[in-house]
Amino acid sequence: MKFADTGLVPELLEAVAKAGYETPTPIQQQAIPPALAGRDVLGCAQTGTGKTAAFSLPILQRIDSVANGRTVLRALVLTPTRELAAQISESFSTYGAGLGLEHAVIFGGVNEKPQIKVLQKGVDILIATPGRLLDLMGRGFVSLAHLEIFVLDEADRMLDMGFIHDVKRITAKLPSKRQTLLFSATMPDEIRSLASKLMRDPVHVSVTPVSSTAEKIAQSVYFTDKAQKRRLLLHVLSKPEVKRALVFSRTKHGANRVVQFLDAGGIPCAAIHGNKSQGARTRALDGFRSGELPVLVATDIAARGIDVEGVTHVVNFDLPNVPETYVHRIGRTARAGAEGIAVSFCDDEERPYLADIERLIKMRIERAPGPTLPAEPIRPQQAASVERSQRSGPPPRRNGPGGRPNRGGMARRSEGSRGRAAQR
Question: Is domain 217-367 annotated with CATH 3.40.50.300?
Fold first, then answer.
């Protein structure tokens, strides 16, 4: 099947060809025709399967056919993260280059004034995260009165991030007569319930089951103590075959600590997670995409917007406690027919997580032999402290009368210290 067989207009076919695509992915083959026909579409497909083009191309064609030069908000794409919103916006720019439509992207963490200015000029298509959208809706800068198409992307991640109530507040403002496209990597009960309320007789599209992992991903796991994980990571990332690695941490603070350790070990890297400013997240992602930063440390929530070609390695520094998340993580390597490597670290507390993952993917992950680990890197300030202590030698002993150690004085100082500590 070719893109020309999906029913797209010449302007969009030309844009797709310029982007280097000839054959639609399975999700695109199944979702584009019914979406072009105005049907509701409920799609289940994991990251990297081409969902963005599956909804952006039909939206562009349908809105262009009714716009008639009048700019009014007719399509809304709701997505959970800033990175994913920016990525979707880039897709609309690429595919809609030959059309006269206006689109905008709004999300939190940045100055709202430029976003408001664009909205006041008028847009046909809006890509937004829930918090900023609700804020600007409440202040009268966004009206959904003329909306014709609503897209809920990464619906399961909306649920994981606690946005489901915000989503419901937004959908309550939607016109009853509209087309709804909902995409999700998994379909938990709450998402199915939401879909049943939002959609009318949807076309169900499901590709790449969440339990499957790419055939060209070599998977292995190291059993290690939690305290040894950082040194093991330094060992793995120091190998010459590691060109571009995505490292997953379960927590934001854990991601920061990993970056500090790798930086001390001489490996350029950056962290990306919800506590980082939008500017820092954009710089980190741009550096990773360009190759300036060979390692990016991310949490699962922030990683939903990472779509970077050429990721050679995915490292699960912390095993996820949800087995489906493992599949999503390692799916960021071995894209477009390339080969990839997925390495996981498993401490004693994480062994049940590993069992759940292997049960889901129906295979036993190869056990990697324990390597001889390098010494822990010493930070510059630590090295300076050690050097000073070596130059000065041991601290002088304080002697009392007659040359004997003043144990009484020492005891009194300790008691005083305890007293001050108690007061603090």
Answer: yes
Contact 195, 224 (CB under 8 A): no
Could you check whether 3-206 and 217-367 share the same CATH topology?
yes
Q: Give the C-alpha separation, 382 to 379, whole Å.
A: 5
Residue 8 phi/psi, 5-degree rounding, is -75, 150
Task: Measure the CA angle with vertex 357, ends 355 and 358; round to 5°.
Answer: 65
Give tens-digit pLDDT for 202-244: 999 988 666 666 678 999 999 999 999 999 999 999 999 999 9
pLDDT digits (tens, 9 = 90+) for 68-82: 888 999 999 999 988
Report the C-alpha gap between 125 and 77 in whole angstroms.
8
pLDDT digits (tens, 9 = 90+) for 13-52: 999 999 888 899 899 999 999 999 999 999 987 766 788 9
Q: Burial of 260 by CB count in 10 Å (0-12 exposed, 13-18 middle, 19+ buried)? A: middle
Beta-strand relationship, 75-78 and 203-206: unpaired
Alpha carbon of 152 to those of 199, 205, 222: distances in Å? 11, 15, 38
Domain 3-206, what architecture?
3-Layer(aba) Sandwich (3.40)
**Which strands form 41-44's sheet, in the order they lie side by side?**
103-106, 125-128, 75-78, 149-152, 179-184, 41-44, 203-206
Cβ atoms 202, 42 nearer than 8 A: yes
Task: Tally the residues of the chain.
Answer: 424
